[in-house]
Structures are given as C-alpha cells and as structure tokens.
C-alpha cells in the first residue's frame, strides 16, 4: 500500500515541502533510508544523515533549516514534533498490518463461547467453554484461551500465548507471544514428612484496560481472590508476577523483573531490568528503582529513587559506591602507614 506526501501530511497535520505526490510504501530509520520509504529527523545529532538519506520523505520539525542541499531532493513534511508524528504513523501501520478478520481452520471454538464482531481467530487457536470475546479482538495462531475467560474490545493476543481459565482481560490490551496468564501461583507448604504439599490456587488474573504484556512474561493466578494488573501498565519481556500481586496504574516494568507473592506496587512507578522484589511488601506511588536492584522491604516514600541490593536512596548509593571503588587505594595507604609505624 502506497501513501503520498500529501496524504501523510494530512494524517499528522503537517506541511509538505517538495513533491506532494512523492509516494512511499515502507518506513525506515534516517541513517538506513531507502527509496520509497518514510523516515523522520527528531534529534539534531542525527541531522547529518538527512543530507545523504535515500528516503523519499522525511518528517522534520517546522523550524528545521537545511545547512546544505538535500540528496535526491527529498520531500519534507514539517510538523510540531517529528517523533510524535512518526509514532502515530507507526501505530496506524501496525493497525493496518494486523487488520485480519475471520476464523482460520483448524481451530476449536466451544459451543458456549461468544465472539464479538470483526474478530480474527488464527489457526490452531483454542477457545474454551464460556469464553467471551469482544469486538475487533485479534487472536493469533497457537493461542489457548481457557474456560471462563473474557477479552475486551480491540485487544490483540499474539501467537503462542496461554491464557488460563477465568482470566479477565480488558479493552485495548496487547499480549505478546509466549505470555502465560493465570498459571498456578508458587504455593507449597511443608508437611510432617518434610515434603512440600501443593496449596491449590483457585483465584484468577485480572488485566485492566490498555495494558501491554511482553513476550514470555508470566502472571500467576491468585491463591484466593485476584492477581491484578491495573490499567495502563506496561510489562516488558520475561517478567514474573507472582500470585496475589497488584501493579498500580501506568506503572512500567523492564525485562526480567521478578515480583514475589502478595506484593502491591503503586501507580506511576518505573522499575528497571532485573529488579527483584520480595513478597508481602508495598511500594508507594511514583517510585523509581534502578536496574538490578533488590527490594526486600516496603517503600513508603512516594516518588523515591532507589538503587542497590539491598536498595536504598540513589544519592546515598552513589556516594557509597565512590567509597567502595576507593577501598583498594585506601587499603594500600593503610598498609603503607602501618609499615611506617612498625618499630
């Protein structure tokens, strides 16, 4: 599918400078631009690429001034914010790419399942008993939706995801390939023979609206009640959320974060990669945790910034780290002093 500069400018409320009939059929980074592609310049340090790019159309700031001639007379679209405009176009491109409708075969849909309008059910999808699917939901091949699940309008579930029974997923969500929602929580108790007996996990998982869950991320069902991911949460790949956890609105977790059971994380938090969080604690709203930190106790101060393992205030951590790096020199100096003090 091709779009002209004039059509693109209308979509992003931009102004065309150059050939408004120039067309593109793909997207590219400005340093890797090829003919018939659309790119953008959103950072001044990449400006030198625009003079050699092969891209046919480039989105730039309204006040962009070219300091030398542009190669191949590239067409510009001037906008208020190129990154925001390009992101909007990427979203539209993704919607077009994923705009599949219909039921592929082979697939299994229970007689008691209910499907909304304009849905896509890929090959080898399994929809269990009493499943309720909203309008315009896209479920890609090799996905399993267990009994009693519900999925809201405009949600996309990519191939190979496994959604266990009674999981509730809201509207406008994206579940990436290999994610597992609703597997048993890690519940065991020692018995008199020093073995571990399984504690049945009979709760569920609730995913509210506008949540994105990365590939191979696992969210365990609650022992009782629900594990809850509030609206607007963004989870990266390879994250573990244990049973009965709750993650507050618009909180973002980077890859390989692991959260133990019954921990409550506030809203608007930012948690870096490989952070480990102990169970049965709370983390206040707006907290930021640096990558590879370990959180072993509750964080009660809102908007606090933490680093280290065990984690503490990032300012104290950095001062302590300076001292830590100086320890070999301090040790050498102390040994030198001790030698001088020897009789």
Sum up the overall morphology in one term.
Answer: flat
Reported by name, the CATH topology of the largest domain is UDP N-Acetylglucosamine Acyltransferase, domain 1
Determine and state the CATH class of the largest domain.
Mainly Beta
Strand count, sense and barrel status of the largest sheet are: 12 strands, mixed
| Secondary-structure arrangement, i.e. CATH architecture of the largest domain | 3 Solenoid
Q: How large a portion of the residues is in β-strands, by DSSP E?
A: 25-35%
CATH superfamily of the largest domain: Hexapeptide repeat proteins
Give me the number of helical elements: 4
**Overall pLDDT metric:** 94
Could you tell me the radius of gyration in angstroms?
26 Å
Low-confidence stretches: none
Strand order of the largest sheet: 8-11-14-17-20-25-28-31-34-37-39-40
- Class from secondary-structure proportions: alpha/beta
Head-to-tail CA distance between termini: 88 Å
- DSSP E strands, number: 40
Helical percentage: 10-25%
When the domains are counted, the total is 2
């Amino acid at each position: 599918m091709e779009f002209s500069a004039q059509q693109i400018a209308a979509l992003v409320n931009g102004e065309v400078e150059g050939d408004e009939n120039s067309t593109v059929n793909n997207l590219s980074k400005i340093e890797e631009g090829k003919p018939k592609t659309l790119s953008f310049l959103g950072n001044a340090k990449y400006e030198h690429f625009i003079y050699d790019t092969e891209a046919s159309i480039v989105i730039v700031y309204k006040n962009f001034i070219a300091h030398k001639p542009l190669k191949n007379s590239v067409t510009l679209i001037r906008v208020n914010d190129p990154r925001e405009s390009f992101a909007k176009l990427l979203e539209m491109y993704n919607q077009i790419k994923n705009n599949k409708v219909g039921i592929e075969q082979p697939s299994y849909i229970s007689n008691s399942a209910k499907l909304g309008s304009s849905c896509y059910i890929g090959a080898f999808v399994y929809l269990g008993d009493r499943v309720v699917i909203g309008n315009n939901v896209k479920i890609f091949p090799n996905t399993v939706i267990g009994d009693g699940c519900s999925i809201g309008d405009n949600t996309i579930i990519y191939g190979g995801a496994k959604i266990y029974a009674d999981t509730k997923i809201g509207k406008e969500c994206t579940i990436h390939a290999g994610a597992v929602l609703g597997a048993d929580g890690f519940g065991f108790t020692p018995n008199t023979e020093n073995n571990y007996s399984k504690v049945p996990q009979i709760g569920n998982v609730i995913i509210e609206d506008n949540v994105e869950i990365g590939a191979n991320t696992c969210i365990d069902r609650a022992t009782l009640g629900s594990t809850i991911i509030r609206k607007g949460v963004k989870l990266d790949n390879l994250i573990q959320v244990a049973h009965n956890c709750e993650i507050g609105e618009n909180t973002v977790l980077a890859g390989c974060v692991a959260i133990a059971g019954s921990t409550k994380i506030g809203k608007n938090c930012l948690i870096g990669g490989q952070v480990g969080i102990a169970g049965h604690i709370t983390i206040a709203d707006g907290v930021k945790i640096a990558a590879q930190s370990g959180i072993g106790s509750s964080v009660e101060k809102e908007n606090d910034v933490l680093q280290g393992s065990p984690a503490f205030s990032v300012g104290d951590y950095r001062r302590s780290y300076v001292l830590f790096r100086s320890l070999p020199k301090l040790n050498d100096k102390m040994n030198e002093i001790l030698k001088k003090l020897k009789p």
